[in-house]
Amino acid sequence: MHIAVIGTGYVGLVSGTCFSEFGHDVICIDTDAGKIDSLNAGEVPIFEPGLQAMIEKNTRSGYLKFGTDLKSAVAGADAVFIAVGTPSRRGDGQADLTYVYAAAKEIAAALSGYTVVVTKSTVPVGTGREVERILHETNPDADFDVVSNPEFLREGAAIEDFMRPDRVIVGTTEPRAQEVMSAIYRPLSLFQTPLVFTSLESSELTKYAGNAFLATKITFINEIADLCEKVGANVHDVARGIGLDGRIGAKFLHPGPGFGGSCFPKDTRALYQTSVEAEAPMRIVDTVIDINEKRKMDMAARIVDACGGSVSSRKIAVLGLTFKPNTDDMRESPSLDIIPALVKAGAVVRAYDPEGMEEARKLLDDVEFCDSSYATIEGADALVIITEWNEFRALDLKRVKSMMKTPVMVDLRNIYDPHDMAIKGFTYRSIGRPT
């Protein structure tokens, strides 16, 4: 199959590369000529484990190409995937579809022969119908079908998620479009991956419903963690106890400083706005959004409390800045709320992240960035772990204690054992566990 992917952001680049790994001929298109030049030179703009090697392999074999000529890419494609950004719209939190609709107009003008136009970007219900309208209006003679095919990629595990997904959702009831999409995803039949065909609207809503449900699980266990601290229970015991119930499942039941990233915050806001517009407001989702925003500030307050009620002129070492490990993505990371709150309270903050430093420097002011964990820890009054990178899981605690001015650790990811930390002489605070 010949596939054109419009947009070389996270979703477009990962999807296009994985399609080429299937053996399809793929061209990824972007308006940013500098980005395309970099990709053609072997420079990958995002950190995602395994992605660089897969890009290099498939560009060498000729299955994967990068370019700026949308017209020629679309004209020769069996399917065109729209994978442009849909950031939150200022004011109401709904997804901004400016780039999606602009891409649809350009695609319409370039269509030649029957083509399946696929929205891969995360879009609200009704977007597919509007894309369909734009295509018809721009090019009345075009022969096409519009399909919704949402992505379910976890940053840091995106290659595995694409190549071995739990399911593939395809929103179309048109037989020709179903045939094309079945051919595109046929390589996954080896793993018996369910290919679920739905209507356009059902597919679009499935993406938002899935992310909102997972965000709700995270928020739920965070609130259970707070309750555990009040009554002397251990949140990990509770999470394991409920997670072993097949109706609940163990994933997304790890307490922490709140969810962030490019999906959950944006998608919960967009889903709630859609529900309001449809006069079926989702109060659960609205509450999840509110609790998650407050939680980040609560984490800053916990750090201040662990330091005796004040961080004024205290040196605070922060390990982990990205919203999760194995990515360089800083979007809506808890660190972007926690660190400014500490700085505002008078703290002297030093920070380190294995992959997110470049982006963090653009987003965080009045922070000293260090080049290693131990350089960050040197002379600190308190150590805070925000992101659970593997290299933070086995710190030499004897060395850490000797380097710190006062051995205070606030572990917002529960990496270490409270009993062991007490034996080693640390004042240790974690989430939802007895100290």
Q: Can you tell me the CATH class of the largest domain?
A: Alpha Beta
The quaternary structure here is single chain
Strand order across the biggest sheet? 3-2-1-4-5-6
What is the arithmetic mean of pLDDT?
96
Poorly predicted tracts of residues? none
Please report the total strand number as a whole number: 14
State the separation between the terminal residues, measured CA to CA. 58 Å
Structural class: alpha/beta
Radius of gyration: 24 Å
Largest sheet: 6 strands, parallel
- Tell me the helix content: 40-55%
CATH topology type of the largest domain: Rossmann fold
Number of domains: 3
Strand-residue fraction?
5-15%
What does this structure look like?
This protein is of the alpha/beta class and 435 residues long. It has 3 domains: 2-198, Rossmann fold (3-Layer(aba) Sandwich), CATH 3.40.50.720; 208-289, N-(1-d-carboxylethyl)-l-norvaline Dehydrogenase, domain 2, CATH 1.10.1040.10; 292-429, NAD(P)-binding Rossmann-like Domain (Rossmann fold). Helices cover 44% and strands 14% of the residues. It has helices spanning 10-21, 33-40, 51-61, 70-75, 98-110, 127-138, 158-163, 175-184, 200-231, 235-243, 264-277, 283-306, 335-344, 357-363, 373-377, 397-403, 418-423; strands spanning 2-6, 25-29, 64-67, 79-82, 115-119, 144-148, 168-171, 195-198, 315-319, 348-352, 367-369, 382-385, 408-411, 427-429. The strands form 3 sheets. It has a 6-stranded parallel sheet with strand order 3-2-1-4-5-6, sandwiched between helices. Helix 12 (283-306) crosses helix 13 (335-344). The longest helix is centred in the middle third of the chain and has 32 residues, at 200-231. It is elongated, with a radius of gyration of 24 Å. The protein starts with a strand and ends in a 6-residue tail after the last strand. The mean pLDDT is 96.
